[in-house]
Amino acid sequence: MPFPFPAVPARVRSGGGRLVRRLGLLPGGEPDGLGEDAGLAGAALHGRVVAFFPEPPRNAYQLGQWLPQLEVLHRQHGVAILTQDSRTTAWLRRRSDLPVLCVGRTATLDGLLQRSDVALAVYVSHHPRNFQMLRHPSTAHVYLGHGESDKAVSASNQLKAYDRAFVAGPAAEQRVLDELMWFDRDRLVRIGRPQAAVPSARPVPVVPTVLYAPTWEGAQPSMAYSSVVTHGQALVTSLLTGGLRVVYRPHPRTGANRRDVAAADAGLRRLLGTAEAARTGSAVDLDRPLQEAFAEADLLITDVSSLAVEWLPTGRPLVVTVPADAAAVVTPSPLLDAVPRLAAAGAHRAAELVHRHLADDEQGHVRAALVDHYLGGCDPDAALARFLEACDDVIAARDAVRATA
Known about the structure:
- The chain is an alpha/beta fold.
- The chain has two domains: 28-190, 3-Deoxy-D-manno-octulosonic-acid transferase, N-terminal domain (Rossmann fold); 209-375, Rossmann fold, CATH 3.40.50.
- It contains 16 helices and 13 strands.
- A seven-stranded parallel β-sheet has the order 3-2-1-4-5-6-7.
- Helix 13 (334-337) links the parallel strand 12 (318-321) and strand 13 (341-342).
- Helix 8 (232-241) packs across helix 14.
């Protein structure tokens, strides 16, 4: 973030910028840049793999879902996480024993890489600061992503910046090849989804549970898939009055870009905090593991998002909302064709829709056939093995190329 008074001496500008960062007054999406650079002078990375993650803590969930797999990879090749935000660094250190280094300056990053033998860098988001790492040609760069979905960003032209993109199943491959011009198919490596849910039996409940898990509002109109403002209040009220238990699971970035979304989110939390809602066992779910939330739900209502895909292995009914913003990019897909869609105008009748599909899940067999298409199956152990093998292959190929350079 440029300091607004360029005539002020550099030392004062630097101190002022640091104060701005410490007070959290940065634009949304920007890391605080409060690195541990002084302690990294002369340091080297001992492993062959780096997970580069310059995101602020509100986006930490993106890397969080890959921590178990990176910990296994660490035992084979050594993995270090490089961050650019002190708060994200603290969050990661509380959740993993992987080495986490907070690097604020490009010069520090350059020095670390020059003194190390890093063969592979992995990325889970398309943050513009990824290019601070991507510019290093001696490392192979692989995009992992943080979920498989029909969102427009799943076929971003930014994928061309990476040497490889690991994808879950045929749906991701086809999406990228259909949307991106001049994209080399060989860059796509199918590994499945190591985070996929393992289906579990769900006893018939006395009161069915509906998990309402909308996505966030997006950073631009084409990504405006969230239903929190347009559907939320009417939808949850309908479910409660319809005798259903409701678990509201907001996206970690809900309200990050728009005050009206933050206000609507707060309204839903208040609604589920009333005595009437409490009598049904309804609640707000903020930080449980996703698989736990899935395990106790009988039906999911979500937006166009990765959760719709992650839910498929449960075999239970699914409803996907229709974005109210006409600018939101929604392309035809097998998943959206196979589920009931809920428009904002029909949100007040959500309970009727839910009861109907709980009683007669007509599309269950169609959704079951989509598990392989979107996720490459629902065996997380097999997917983990393919992930590790794909990393081995990239490292070996990189080493072979560099040996002849």
